[in-house]
């Protein structure tokens, strides 16, 4: 018996990619949770220099 799987490939603009395999019966919520729980460690968001200061200033204005 052949089991079908769906391949979800996430691609960063840097060219890095990550594949996830899912069953057609998996819900969107299950897929989203799995991707969140297994997000690649080296894909962390980094904010440098003035961008970080601008980000903090924008967040401060919202609070």
Automatic annotation (TrEMBL):
Residues 5-47 form the UBL3-like ubiquitin domain. Transmembrane segments: none annotated. It comes from the Eukaryota. Signal peptide: none annotated. InterPro entries: Ubiquitin-like_domsf, UBL3-like_ubiquitin_dom. This is UBL3-like ubiquitin domain-containing protein.
């Amino acid at each position: 018996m052949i089991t079908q799987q769906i391949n979800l490939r996430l691609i960063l603009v840097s060219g890095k990619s990550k594949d996830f395999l899912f069953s057609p019966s998996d819900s969107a919520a299950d897929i989203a949770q799995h991707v969140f729980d297994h997000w690649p460690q080296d894909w962390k968001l980094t904010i440098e220099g003035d961008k970080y200061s601008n980000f903090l200033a924008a967040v401060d204005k919202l609070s």
